[in-house]
Design goal:
Layout lengths: L34 H15 L9 H12 L4 H11 L3 H8 L13 E6 L2 H19 L12 E6 L11 E3 L2 E3 L4 H13 L14 H8 L22 H8 L20 H8 L7 H4 L17
Parallel strand pairs: 1-2
Antiparallel strand pairs: 1-3, 3-4
Helix pairs in contact: 1-2, 2-3, 2-7, 3-4, 5-6
């Protein structure tokens, strides 16, 4: 028998891309909290954990809490969450590194995100991102030297009717342009008060993280319903009101909770009907006709 030639081994590199920040340990990261900070964090954590029937369910808001303290996740924050919830550091880190909302590197006062998903990209999102990278002299994921702006690509945030969309600390800036984006970051860096398209005036990234941890949002107008959705999102509801449209009333149900539709309606629903012939639903393939013989082996 002839010996089979040996194939070259295929090497597969597992793990993160070289440019991806995955380490929570760095030269300036906090390894532990001083006693006064621990006392304050424990007080806040008690409030958060008490909201859940199982303590470990509070992990996500607690990660926001420690991120509010440090501006990103640190070994000190991971250790704190582990201790409070009686989880291992590996369990906490596995969750923390799964979600993109948890930062692994220091974050600026304002986290500026540009949506570059398909619709926003073709509407100008890519141009906005290129403009900001050049204007701020930083790349995706980097922070300006003054610590004010961290620039990032963001995934779709369900505001496609206002594309292209930017978000600053998770607040919407709709129908953005390269010019408006440049003016926005200049205002943020100058210390001016900026109000998003919808919602209350901006607060800092760390203040936003505390709100996401479940604490009160005390900004003026934060709880006003007028800031919950824009006109384009409410177009369907407005049309329904103008034409006196409403959802159908629920039908009184049987004791088991299912609507009592009546025997005739049930019979119509479950009536057996013959399946359509394949030729009636499956169109012929391109460059073939219904009379072409089938290809052997298919």
């Amino acid at each position: 028998m002839t010996a089979q030639p040996q194939s070259e081994p295929v090497l597969i590199q597992l793990g993160a891309r070289p440019e991806e920040a995955v380490q929570l340990v760095g030269p300036d990261t906090r390894a532990s909290y001083p006693p006064d900070v621990l006392t304050r964090l424990h007080s806040d954590a008690d409030v958060v954990v008490a909201r859940y029937p199982q303590a470990r369910s509070a992990l996500l808001p607690l990660l926001h809490l420690v991120q509010a303290e440090d501006g990103c996740l640190t070994p000190a924050g991971i250790e704190f969450c582990s201790e409070v919830l009686e989880l291992t550091g590996a369990e906490v880190t596995a969750v923390a590194t799964f979600y993109s909302m948890y930062r692994r590197e220091p974050t600026g006062t304002y986290r500026v995100g540009v949506c570059t998903n398909t619709l926003c990209a073709v509407m100008g999102g890519d141009a906005i991102m290129d403009t900001l990278r050049e204007h701020l002299d930083i790349d995706h994921g980097e922070t300006t030297a003054d610590g004010t702006i961290t620039l990032e690509h963001i995934e779709c945030n369900a505001a496609c009717d206002y594309a292209p969309v930017m978000m600053v600390n998770w607040e919407f800036f709709d129908n953005s342009t390269p010019s408006s984006a440049r003016d926005l970051v200049d205002s943020l860096r100058s210390g001016a008060q900026v109000t998003p398209t919808r919602g209350a005036p901006l607060c800092t990234f760390r203040e936003t993280e505390r709100i996401l941890a479940g604490f009160a949002d005390d900004r003026p107008g934060a709880l006003e319903s007028s800031g919950s959705a824009g006109e384009a999102s409410l177009a369907g509801l407005r049309y329904a009101h103008e034409h006196s449209m409403s959802a159908p009333q629920a039908v009184a149900g049987s004791p088991d909770g299912h609507p009592d539709l009546g025997a005739e309606a049930v019979a119509e629903t479950v009536r057996e009907k013959p399946a359509p012939a394949p030729s009636a639903t499956v169109p012929p393939q391109p460059n073939t006709t219904e009379t072409d013989p089938p290809t052997k082996g298919k």
